[in-house]
Write a structure and sequence with these properties.
Elements: E1 4-7, H1 9-13, H2 16-27, E2 31-36, H3 41-48, H4 57-65, E3 73-75, H5 81-86, E4 94-97, H6 100-109, E5 113-116, H7 122-136
Parallel strand pairs: 1-2, 1-4, 2-3, 4-5
Helix pairs in contact: 2-7
The structure holds magnesium ion.
Length: 137
């Protein structure tokens, strides 16, 4: 059975409730990925012509906390995320994202499912996380 699940970072996996959710998924044997719009540190350093950056330290901190290996961190460099998934990577159970354009793009352009994590409204956020739990846990 396919056990890969994907989370956006900013305003999604950066949120403590989502981290808790991801921890539960991991405990049940799912493999966690972060698929972010951000540039990778390497790309930042290349573009700025500098030899170090702390640009993604917050992301790495959370990834380390959730024991997500660096090979499971995908930086999309502000391209649409469906391009990553349709490029031979649509074998995920779901992707969770606060950006409705990304969610629609993935749902329209790939065979996998994306869920919207709404801004601000804690009740609506919990509802989405509970729906995913009901479906997959
Ligand atoms: Mg986001």
């Amino acid at each position: 059975m396919n056990k890969k699940v994907s989370y956006d970072f900013d305003d999604t996996l950066s949120n403590g409730m989502v981290q808790h959710h991801a921890k539960l998924m991991k405990k049940k044997g799912y493999e966690l990925f972060v698929v972010t719009s951000r540039l990778s540190d390497e790309e930042i350093m290349r573009r700025r012509n500098v030899s170090e950056t702390n640009w993604n330290n917050d992301l790495y901190f959370v990834a380390k906390h959730l024991e997500i290996p660096e090979t499971n961190l995908v930086f999309c460099s502000y391209g649409p995320k469906y391009e990553f998934f349709w490029d031979g990577n649509d074998d995920f159970l779901f992707h969770l994202d606060d950006d409705l354009d990304e969610v629609d793009g993935i749902n329209n352009m790939t065979n996998m499912e994306a869920f919207h994590f709404p801004h601000g409204n804690r009740k609506a956020q919990l509802e989405v996380l509970n729906n995913i739990k009901d479906r997959f846990l």
